[in-house]
Write a structure and sequence with these properties.
heterodimer, A: about 425 residues, alpha/beta, eight-stranded mixed beta sheet, six-stranded mixed beta sheet, B: about 450 residues, TIM Barrel
Chain lengths: ~425, ~450
């Protein structure tokens, strides 16, 4: 807890503490079993206790005693606490300004359609202005996706903290996106993916011949095929984009046939084939505000799609598919509730479900032993009338500022000029 | 005071031109309006947000003959007609979106449906969004489901002067003309900054911001010249005619050539056409205000206006409204300095902020966007009542569109544009349950038939 400075909400200052533990008390905490008024103790990067007795509370000095140790104390009375939110479809840290190509680092480039060996974690910029802005919206982790070609490379699972890649990147090979595109037909691209996976298996089984150059022609470089070994081993999912029920049905068969983990991004018509997706173990990343008529592939889209998929046993993730608008994630989950999903399931869709889908089971959940990625909210985390009062990543309270708050504060006053003159030196 | 002066200016009779009759014919209705009278409806027991500053809880609203007959607290004075028990519900004015491309970029998206930018020249003031508006866009019904009863449909922002927008009521019709809201003024869409120079940089220009400004000024210089010619012709026509000399042909009145582009711009100069300008950066907005000053017209509002907070004193003082999102930013460089407190800070400065959508998805949730903008303000310590926040999607947009005397608040005599919500309208969980447009029930969450012919008969559409 070395960086535990000004442990407080908003602008209220409180004495800096060098304690190695933190007690947050008084809030309603969204636990796996449901919301409950309880305390949380954080030691180092992880949650050490929930509901443990806390004594000698001194709110004024911001201290309390837990298990014989004097800890930093945060009174969160009237607040709600959830696990930090996880946006599972972003280009955070890869794009600064969407329409300015010079600010992009998301694409390995070239005409090669298969760049599976490229790890976008190497391009991830933890100092991008988007990171603090998303984090102020309660996002503590994200999947950062590369783009371009059929297989643009490995997606990175990142925590939104730290100033170096080595501090931020949790998994540099968390998933592989495959762009199914719209022309040729998605099913044709699926067939090509099957051929690639076959080549990846064959190349792995015949490494000596491949290295010696005596093996048959392969659809991608041996290096790119080798990277797909992570997918073949089931250690990371393939992310495929599709909305139309017919395409989803073909994807469910693909997942079963290829014995790989598949996450579908889109799934607007998922409710029509929810049984098939559940049976094939295909998870979905969706946007609950997709409204049907928006495209020919989404005509059957409807507000209760997330609820229906969940009820059928499909793992449901909600994501923004944005980067600048990542902070809108909880509003999307709120809209899933509006469409009939339970509050607990909708919150899980932006916390626990993405953590499970991308192999980070100790994130996205408020539980003893879990990574202390936590958000203290002014109220219901899914409601549009609330905001994040404090954000913790790996046990460390993050600065309550961003480029946007600094701009806001510069223009709080308008004394005729954007910048008031400096006061004269004494 | 300044706003009052502006209103008086706009209310002044239009400067007569020889083209007024032609313009009127261009706006004449084609489809016949429904003949049956709007019923009397009494909504009781609800929390009523009027967007005037008054909240009645419990309160009532009576609709009669298409208009609001009365609003008040407690029990309604009369219970004739259809009485709807709205206990536990919430009532607001119909929501109004000042920036929609429904109909001109309809769903489903695709090349055949791209009718929003006449991107063949940088200034096309003579095109009318009405003529691109497809009334079968399924987005209109989705907007109604979000409580939207009227909107301003605008051309896109590829062009410096993109053409006329159209103020419509959200009702199913066969042609777009019938959607026009009666007595709404004409509006024109303009755009500054990145878009025009990006679109025309390789197509003959402008390719810079200074090029943008030259094009604006050149267009209005031409309009000034034409206005003077028309005024002169009008004066000539009004002079008593000399008797022709015996045997001579009677004198022909001076011929006046019509010009669709210049008619729109002369309308701007005369104050008949409300100016709606797409602009992001503070300095870009100030540049446009300079052009407006040079040619003596008013800017009604800036759209997107993400840096309005930097010049909110100027905008409030001049009575120029802003239309923007709650929290969009960063999609281009001129959107890089956006902050989510923009709307709240405009509000606190006494300005006229509006939450707009510019999106077929956003228009379905304007109430949620208003709630977020309110929350951002509250988090920085600005007090904003729920009624004021709802005014950002009702009262203020009505002013931007010049229909504030017709709709936008719940007051006796205004149009019966009313929404009954199943929960607090500033909650993410709430839905519009009943939506009245012009006093007629147009959307009922539980039994509305499909509006759009396009969706009719498609498999698995609801």
């Amino acid at each position: 807890m070395k960086a535990l400075l000004a442990l407080s909400f908003g602008l209220l200052a409180s004495p800096a503490l060098a304690a190695d533990c933190l007690v947050v008390d008084g809030a309603t905490v969204h636990l796996p079993a449901g919301p409950q008024a309880t305390s949380i103790v954080v030691v180092g990067e992880r949650i050490a206790a929930i509901g443990a007795p806390v004594t000698a509370v001194d709110a004024a000095s911001g201290q309390a005693t837990w298990d014989g140790s004097v800890c930093a104390y945060l009174d969160a009375s009237g607040k709600q606490i959830s696990a930090g939110l996880i946006d599972s479809s972003t280009q955070l840290g890869l794009v600064e300004v969407s329409l300015e190509g010079s600010s992009h680092d998301k694409d390995a480039g070239g005409s090669d359609e298969v760049r599976a060996a490229f790890e976008v974690a190497d391009a991830y910029d933890p100092r991008s202005s988007l990171i603090a802005i998303a984090r102020l919206g309660g996002i503590t982790s994200a999947l950062a996706n590369p783009s371009g070609g059929l297989l643009p490379g490995a997606s990175a699972f990142v925590d939104l903290a730290g100033r170096r890649q080595s501090e931020a990147v949790v998994d540099s090979r968390a998933a592989w996106i495959a762009n199914l595109g719209s022309r040729p037909a998605k099913s044709a691209t699926l067939d090509r993916l099957s051929a690639l996976l076959t080549d990846a298996r064959d190349a792995a089984a015949n490494q000596r011949a491949v290295q010696g150059g005596s093996y048959r022609d392969l659809l991608a470089s041996p290096r790119d095929l080798a990277a797909l070994g992570v997918v073949l081993a089931g250690d990371a999912p393939l992310i495929l984009n599709a909305d139309r029920a017919a395409d989803l049905e073909a994807i469910a068969r693909f997942a079963t046939r290829e014995k790989v983990r598949v996450v579908v991004r889109g799934a607007a018509e998922g409710w029509l084939v929810s049984d098939l997706l559940a049976e094939a173990g295909v998870a979905v990343i969706l946007d609950p505000t997709v409204y049907g008529a928006g495209s020919f592939d989404q005509l059957g889209g409807r507000a209760d799609n997330p609820a229906q998929l969940k009820a059928a046993g499909v793992e449901v993730l909600i994501a923004t598919g944005s980067s600048h608008h990542s902070r809108g994630l909880r509003q999307l989950a709120g809209n899933a509730v509006r469409g009939g999903m339970s509050h607990a399931d909708a919150l899980d869709a932006i916390t626990g479900a993405p953590a499970r889908a991308f192999g980070q089971r100790d994130r996205g959940v408020v539980a003893v032993g879990a990574v202390a990625n936590l958000v203290v909210w002014s109220g219901d985390p899914l409601e549009v009338t609330t905001w994040a009062d404090a954000v913790f990543v790996r046990g460390v309270q993050q600065p309550h500022s961003s480029r946007q708050t600094v701009l806001r504060d510069r223009y709080r006053e308008l004394p005729g000029s954007p910048l008031a003159p400096l006061s004269l030196p004494e | 005071m300044i706003r009052l002066a502006l209103l008086l200016l706009l209310a002044a009779p239009a400067h007569a031109t020889p083209l007024a009759d032609a313009e009127d014919r261009g706006l004449a209705p084609i489809e016949t309006a429904p003949a049956e009278p709007a019923p009397t409806v009494v909504l009781t027991g609800a929390t009523v947000f009027t967007a005037t500053g008054e909240v009645h809880s419990p309160g009532w609203v009576v609709l009669r003959s298409g208009k609001i007959a009365g609003v008040g607290a407690g029990d309604p004075p009369e219970t004739k007609g259809t009485v709807i028990d709205a206990t536990g519900k919430f009532i607001t004015p119909g929501l109004i979106d000042t920036h929609s491309h429904l109909g001109v970029y309809p769903s489903p998206g695709g090349r055949a449906h791209s009718d929003g930018n006449e991107a063949t020249a940088a200034t096309t003031p003579g095109v009318w969004a009405e003529h691109s508006t497809w009334p079968q866009d399924p987005g209109f019904e989705r907007a109604a489901a979000g409580g939207v009863t009227s909107m301003m449909i605008l051309p896109g922002s590829a062009n410096l002067i993109g053409g006329r927008g159209v103020v419509v009521q959200n009702v199913p019709t066969r042609g777009s003309r019938a959607m026009r809201m009666a007595d709404a003024p004409e509006v024109v869409k303009m755009a500054c900054g990145e878009n025009p120079k990006r679109v025309y940089g390789d197509k003959g220009g402008p390719s810079t911001r200074m090029g943008n400004l030259r094009s604006f000024r050149s267009a209005f210089l031409a309009a000034e010249t034409r206005r003077d010619e028309w005024n002169k012709a009008a004066e000539e026509a009004d002079k008593p005619k000399k008797k022709p000399k015996r045997g001579a042909e009677p004198e022909e009145p001076a011929r006046v050539d019509r010009n669709l582009d210049l008619e729109t711009l002369v309308g701007v100069l005369n104050g008949d056409v409300l100016v709606q300008v797409h602009c992001y950066r503070a300095d870009d907005m100030l540049s446009v205000l300079q052009v407006a000053d040079e040619f003596g017209f008013s800017v009604r509002s800036f759209h997107h206006a993400l840096e309005a907070y930097k010049i909110r004193d100027v905008l409030a003082d001049k009575g120029v409204a802003i239309n923007t999102w709650a929290d969009w930013w960063g999609f281009k460089l001129e959107a890089y300095d956006a902050i989510p407190e923009n709307i709240a800070m405009m509000h606190a400065a006494g300005g006229i902020p509006v939450v707009h959508s510019d999106s077929p998805i956003g228009i379905q949730r304007l109430n949620q966007e208003a709630a977020k903008a309110q929350a951002s303000g509250r988090a920085m310590g600005i007090e904003i009542s729920d009624d004021d926040a709802l005014g950002w999607v009702t009262k203020n947009p009505a002013w931007v569109m010049g229909i504030d005397s017709l709709t936008g608040t719940l007051e006796a005599g205004k149009r019966g544009d009313v929404v009954m919500w199943d929960g607090h309208p500033l909650s993410v969980y709430s839905e519009a349950q009943l939506v009245f447009v012009g006093g007629r029930l147009r959307y009922d969450r539980d039994r509305t038939p499909i509006w759009s012919d396009f969706e009719l008969g498609q498999e698995d559409v609801r």
